């Protein structure tokens, strides 16, 4: 595949350099941007900016979303109260929040972290909700019979049972955080990987676009791996899913 | 209706590095219009055997002849009733039964009549326009049987058709099947792992060994059956008949031998 | 308020009411500057006003129509490519081997990340937006079609084979109905994702539509326009979701696969 790519771009000029960069150019871009400034900052600096935004929004979103989802799933009252509101607000795509966030927080770290937070809350909440709802009734009854009640029941029976789905929700929140950071930065940034992309498209440099995409993919994959490791450590009793 | 002949049929599957022999030389003739039941321990290859008669799988060696002709591929002359019904969920009962008839280019008027005939015969009048999920398990299987009979097969193949139903329903359907077969006739090849069922239904009862499957013993029950009029009596009577119980015990002994190894 | 009325209010209304009340208080007490957060009433009135009075070039209705039109176009293109492709990939092995790896890599790129490429290749305007929408719509439909087609239970195919089913009937009356529920699920997901991608693309790549409108609201520092635009976006997104769900349900009923 790599060979085909190189051929198509650099050697045979099938695809004009303006449209897609050759692997060689991409590599060059990578190496240079490590040291030199591109669009105002070096590659590591851009990475840091995006990473911080993602972490802030992601962690915040999960920290709010999971408890909310658990509460909504466990207590029918909370569920009935919060559901319509949640489902309505969630209809507004996270990106549509960007302009408002900019009005509120100006351009910089805050609006993007905020928008990522909005995006990340949703999958965590939904999955936590479903996870709690799907806990085996018999299991809960068994716990009750053996003396667990109220808070302890939630902590020691409900949450562990719902844990696999909760982790799925967290993983989805992570994915969505990376997706959103790209988009948010496209709009409202002066640094970061998304900003690199915009800059690159304005300056007609597809190699930098691809570079930022690659970095995002890489970082996303690394964080997902870390998450999966964590999941395996914490939920060692889970059977691999069937079918 | 046609006979089914097995000539040294073998079936081998590639497994890992080697091979698994599921069937090791089955030779037997099921005469036409005979209700043949194959019973054996799990994994003995009886389902595979049926699939080969149906043409859904090919023997590794040997041949299978239906009505004197070798089996080529799946076709309505060897209609199948599957264990899990395999009714098309998006078609009504009526449409399911008519499906094979449409493929055989049966003209609409005749089709209608046939479908109607079988709906009545299976006690499904009024349910023809229901979807499978709106029917109980027993009714679904009756639709499946109707679908198979409707195409006038030379051999009716039944692959543990009642295994997915609860015990009470099974007994009812066994009785129904006998009544149906007494009316409509034909050659039937029926697979089961229930000894009760096998002894009740069979003309020829073929007991298989465990894997690799071979024919262990064939019981010819035609004489007993006719003499005691099993097919004319309610099933609960038959199941208390001493001859039935003795036969059952003997068949069971054979199977137990196979299981114990 | 008397108790009867209180009890009759569904619980779900509470968070909305709370939001409104707190919001208004925040602005009135000066805790939040009015320039940044307009009072709720102002937002509501702006919303209705915008329906007929143009802002940033068009009325809200016109912009909504433009956005919907773009979405519909992108969705149609995406579906028309994805469904046949998914079917072919599911049933014709060689195609699967060729297309799958490429798809697996490309699909992780979020639709919005394609915007810079889209602008590079198509310039600012409708084609760029359409491209971005298609990248959002295509993956769920393709994936669902592929897996739906592959997952047709063997038993149906076997049963149909024993009943002498000719090829065209096998496709139309056995394979397609079996795969359809999953495919339609994919269409529903694709529709929703397509709308999100559309809005995203309108924030950058075009000069009309709802996304563009809220960007202008941001640039001219008129938050009441931004919020009412967001409400419009949310409403349409909701309508799309509800409609596709209903369609899915109807189709399942028609196919006898749900009660």
Characterization of the model:
The complex is a heterotrimer of chains A (243), B (261) and C (259). Chain A has one domain (43-234): MetI-like fold (Orthogonal Bundle). Chain A is 77% helix and 0% strand. Chain A has ten helices and no strands. Chain A has helices at residues 2-11, 23-35, 43-74, 76-89, 98-105, 109-133, 137-145, 150-187, 193-202, 206-234. In chain A, helix 3 packs across helix 4, helix 8 (150-187) runs parallel beside helix 9 and helix 8 (150-187) packs antiparallel against helix 10 (206-234). Chain B has a domain at 4-77 and 153-260: P-loop containing nucleotide triphosphate hydrolases (Rossmann fold, 3-Layer(aba) Sandwich). In chain B, the strands form two sheets. In chain B, strands 6-7-8-3-9-10 form a six-stranded mixed β-sheet, sandwiched between helices. A four-stranded antiparallel β-sheet of chain B has the order 2-1-4-5, covered by helices on one side. In chain B, strand 1 and strand 2 (18-30) form a beta hairpin. Chain B is an alpha/beta fold and 261 residues long. Chain B contains nine helices and ten strands. Chain B has helices spanning 46-54, 93-103, 108-121, 137-150, 167-184, 195-201, 222-228, 235-238, 242-260, and strands spanning 4-15, 18-30, 35-39, 61-66, 69-70, 78-81, 155-159, 187-192, 204-208, 215-220. Chain C is an all-alpha fold and 259 residues long. Chain C folds into two domains: 1-37, no CATH class; 39-254, MetI-like (MetI-like fold, Orthogonal Bundle). Helices cover 79% and strands 0% of the residues of chain C. Chain C has eleven helices and no strands. The longest helix of chain C has 38 residues, at 167-204. Chain C is elongated and about 75 Å long. The two termini of chain C are 43 Å apart. The chains are: A mainly alpha (243), B alpha/beta (261), C mainly alpha (259). At the A-C interface, helix 4, helix 5, helix 8, helix 9 and helix 10 of A face helix 2, helix 6, helix 9, helix 10 and helix 11 of C.
């Amino acid at each position: 595949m790599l060979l085909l790519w190189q051929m198509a771009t650099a050697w045979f000029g099938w695809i004009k350099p303006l449209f897609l960069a050759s692997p060689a150019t991409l590599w060059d871009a990578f190496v240079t941007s490590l040291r030199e400034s591109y669009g105002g900052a070096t590659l590591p600096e851009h990475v840091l900016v995006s990473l911080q935004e993602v972490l802030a929004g992601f962690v915040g979103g999960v920290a709010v979303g999971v408890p909310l989802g658990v509460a909504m799933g466990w207590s029918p009252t909370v569920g009935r109260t919060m559901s319509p509101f949640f489902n309505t607000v969630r209809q507004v795509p996270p990106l549509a929040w960007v302009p408002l966030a900019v009005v509120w927080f100006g351009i910089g770290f805050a609006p993007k972290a905020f928008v990522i937070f909005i995006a990340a809350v949703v999958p965590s909440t939904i999955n936590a909700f479903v996870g709690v709802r799907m806990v085996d009734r018999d299991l809960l009854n068994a716990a009750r019979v053996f003396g667990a009640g109220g808070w302890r029941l939630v902590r020691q029976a409900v949450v562990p049972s719902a844990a696999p789905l909760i982790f799925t929700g967290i993983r989805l929140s992570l994915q969505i955080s990376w997706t959103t950071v790209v988009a948010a930065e496209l709009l409202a940034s002066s640094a970061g990987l998304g900003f690199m992309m915009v800059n690159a498209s304005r300056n007609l440099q597809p190699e930098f676009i691809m570079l930022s995409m690659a970095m995002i993919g890489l970082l996303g994959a690394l964080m997902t791996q870390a998450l999966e490791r964590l999941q395996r450590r914490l939920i060692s009793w889970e059977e691999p899913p069937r079918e | 209706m046609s006979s089914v002949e097995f000539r040294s049929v073998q079936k081998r599957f590639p497994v890992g590095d080697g091979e698994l022999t599921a069937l090791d030389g089955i030779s037997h003739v099921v005469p036409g219009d005979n209700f043949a039941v194959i019973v054996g321990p799990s994994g003995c290859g009886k389902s595979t055997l049926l699939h080969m008669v149906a043409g859904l799988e090919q023997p590794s060696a040997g041949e299978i002849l239906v009505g004197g002709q070798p089996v080529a591929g799946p076709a309505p002359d060897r209609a199948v009733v599957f264990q899990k019904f395999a009714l098309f969920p998006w078609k009504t009962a009526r449409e399911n039964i008519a499906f094979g008839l449409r493929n055989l280019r049966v003209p609409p008027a005749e089709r209608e009549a046939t479908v109607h005939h079988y709906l009545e015969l299976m006690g499904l009048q009024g349910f023809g326009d229901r979807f499978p999920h709106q029917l109980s398990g027993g009714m679904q299987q009756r639709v499946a049987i109707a679908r198979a009979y409707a195409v006038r097969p030379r051999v009716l193949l039944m692959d543990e058709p009642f295994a997915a139903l609860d015990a009470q329903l099974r007994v009812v359907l066994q009785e129904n099947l006998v009544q149906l077969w007494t009316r409509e006739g034909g050659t039937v090849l029926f697979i089961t792992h229930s000894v009760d069922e096998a002894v009740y239904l069979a003309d020829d009862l073929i007991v298989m060994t465990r894997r690799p499957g071979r024919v262990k013993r064939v019981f010819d029950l035609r004489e007993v059956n006719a003499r005691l009029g099993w097919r004319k009596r309610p099933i609960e009577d038959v199941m208390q008949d001493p001859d039935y119980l003795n036969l059952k015990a003997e068949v069971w002994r054979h199977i137990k031998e196979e299981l114990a190894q | 308020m008397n108790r009867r009325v209180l009890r009759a209010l569904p619980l779900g209304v509470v968070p909305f009411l709370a939001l409104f009340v707190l919001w208004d208080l925040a602005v009135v007490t000066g805790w939040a500057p009015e320039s940044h957060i307009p009072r709720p009433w102002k937002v509501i009135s702006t919303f209705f006003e915008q329906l007929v009075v143009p802002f940033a070039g068009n009325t809200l209705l016109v912009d909504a129509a433009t956005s919907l039109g773009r979405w519909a176009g992108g969705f149609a293109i995406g579906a028309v490519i994805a469904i046949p492709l998914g079917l072919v990939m599911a049933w014709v092995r060689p195609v699967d081997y060729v297309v799958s790896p490429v798809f697996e890599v490309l699909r992780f790129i979020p639709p919005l990340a394609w915007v810079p490429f889209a602008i590079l290749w198509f310039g600012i305007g409708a084609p760029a937006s359409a491209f971005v929408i298609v990248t959002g719509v295509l993956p769920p439909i393709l994936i669902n079609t592929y897996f739906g087609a592959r997952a047709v239970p063997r038993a149906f195919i076997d049963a149909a084979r024993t009943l002498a089913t000719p090829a065209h009937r096998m496709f139309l009356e056995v394979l397609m109905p079996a795969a359809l529920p999953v495919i339609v699920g994919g269409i529903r997901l694709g529709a929703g994702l397509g709308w999100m991608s559309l809005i995203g693309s309108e924030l950058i790549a075009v000069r009309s539509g709802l996304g563009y409108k809220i960007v202008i609201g941001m640039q001219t520092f008129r938050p009441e326009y931004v919020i009412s635009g967001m409400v419009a976006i949310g409403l349409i997104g909701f309508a799309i979701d509800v409609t596709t769900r209903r369609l899915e349900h109807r189709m399942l009923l028609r196919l006898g696969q749900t009660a």
